[in-house]
Amino acid sequence: MMKRIVPRTPVKCVQAYQHAVAFHDWEKCWALLSKSSQDSWKARAKDFQRAYSDTAHRDEIARMTRELADMGYTPTQGHEITGPMLMVGTCKTQFKANPDGFRAFAEAKCTDYKQMERSALIDVRLEGQSSPQHAMAEQHGFLWHLLLPYPNVIPTTPAPSPPPPANPAHH
Model-level pTM? Predict the structure, then answer.
């Protein structure tokens, strides 16, 4: 059973996730995800299990078997892959493909956040970028969890564009 690690502020939540990414502690990353994000990963894992079990096409099984191998799993694990396994495997494969992106996120500064009801939009400023990226967090009780539904493993959402200027009403 994975231990739940949950910070009490949105910024601390992102910083804990950054620390976990920096040390490749993918299980801690899972523990920092919101319930809705975990549910998203679990649903995708069930879809994967179903497709892996039901596929009669050799080429599709071969592709899924390669995907499992890339994540560090054996072909026999395709029938039993779980949400945490899928998230951890995706972290590993995405890190291999983009170690600089993971490093940049781990070293980014959390500069500000805007809280809306029980969610928050946290500014994450990567070195050398003038505009911040955004991470989303959800509050459950006093604790915060990152909102990263499948297939996202690091928050790299560009800052939203400002709304267009309002058109004055014509009378």
Answer: 0.81
